Amino acid sequence: MRRFTVYDSLTREVRSFAPIAPPRVGMFVCGLTPYAEAHVGHGRFAVVFDVVARALRHWGYRVFYVQNITNLDDKLIARAAEIEEDPLALADRYAQSWRRLMTRLEVSSVNYYPYATDYVPEILAQVRVLIDRGYAYVAEDGSVYYSVARFPEYGKLSGQRVEALRPGARVEVDERKRAPEDFVIWKAATPGEPSWESPWGPGRPGWHIEDTAMTGRLLGPRYDLHGAGLDLIFPHHDSEIALAEAASGEAPFVNYWMHNGLLTMGGEKMSKSIGNVSSLEDAIDRYGPMVLRFYYLNAHYRSPLEFDPPRTLDEAKEAYARLALPADRIAEALDRRAEDAAGADLPDTLADAAEALEETLDATLANDFNSREVIALLFGWTRRMTEDLPRLDAYSSDALEELAGPYRWAEEVLGLFVRRPEGRGGAWANLVPVLLEARARARARGDFAEADRIRDELRGRGIRLEDDASGTRWEFTGPE
RNA sequence: GCCGAGGUGGCAGAAUGGUUAAUGCGUCGGACUGCAGAUCCGAUUCCUGGGGGUUCGAUUCCCUCCCUCGGCUCCA
To answer: At CA A289, angle to CA A45 and CA A419, rounded to 5?
Structure first.
């Protein structure tokens, strides 16, 4: 297991990572409340923590990664009422859409996406324990509240002191609470809304306790790594700590807290409530998953990242195309000579450089997941590979594998350079070589009008041609 | 008001107590090309918010001020 460091939001320092029970690592990330289409900001946390899990596995840890889905809350219920759909059905619809987007984005590391409502028994059990231990009380209407005053360390993650909070700053004060800072863990049912039976009457789970009940069951009372956007630190994560440590009597609840910086648009956080959202699916359709992943990983995960369409993704597209060009050419050369072992060996200096680079990539990422620095190193390799492109077909397949090494590393750990057959021209792919041959003949006899006509025709079908010294290449870019 | 994060070239965005502050985008020049595009080579050597302090040396550490963003019970 490689050693690595990670910035821990609780201690506010970069710490060396040590799992509770190596090599196993329990990892939990706060996922979506699926009541609307996912936006580009959501994609960031998904890719950031995907890379964290991929890296840990690459380094020999056995990661169990859980990303929850809050499939019932006030906003979701309100939205469902608006469009006259069952709230749980609405949530399921958007949750499945999220899963499809994750597949397209190559977010493959999540082991389990639990629904909050599938953990009602665990939630009720935790509510019971908290009442029994005197941390929670039942209000007149059957709601149950956590009494923040009973947990003196409340706020240690955010640094907030309870007495400094402004009750009602953004959310109306709830009269049923004993203290304004108390939060609901079991919400008495409202007619017409989904509800479950409980010893305190019908109701539904509060937000914070969903996660602690779920992780208690799946990861145990204490686990290694908790991630999310930094907008969730307060009150959500502070409340999770208060709930979990009170319920289990064990501490610390979580050993490492990771928070990613937020994606901004127009300088402000991208969010549904502000309305400055841009669809994630749209971005994937338009630019492809690799460009999007590149864009996210091109910044340190803790920095804010500005999204300014179309400029930012156009720029990422240009940069990624340049970075990936040798990776593609090497892969193509390998395809061409799959069964052919003949060819030149790699010069020692190049072979050594490839090996050394892989070690540097690991060491760089092991420094608090500095993916931006890793990408800078990969650009260095791409520059070096570019010089070798004309000689590619002279190398043996073993030599080509060595050249591909750093890109393979990035494919496994960063999820970049993934080549999928989809989007490569579909049914037209069979026709293209025939048309290219016809065009080559036209060019050879000087009939450039015919050559351009074929090029334009294909362009109209979303296939772009490029001539270079070795002949004509094509790629499917989609209809304009 | 309180808590937290952050201010780096035209833009995006890294890093480090120490030679010309990475990398990419853009721009300019050149190569290649029937044209286009892509690609390649070179250039863009006056960029670390202001003011103090520690140090032989600060963008980095400390103090202070200014500005931006996030949070203060909906939020990735």
So the answer is: 130
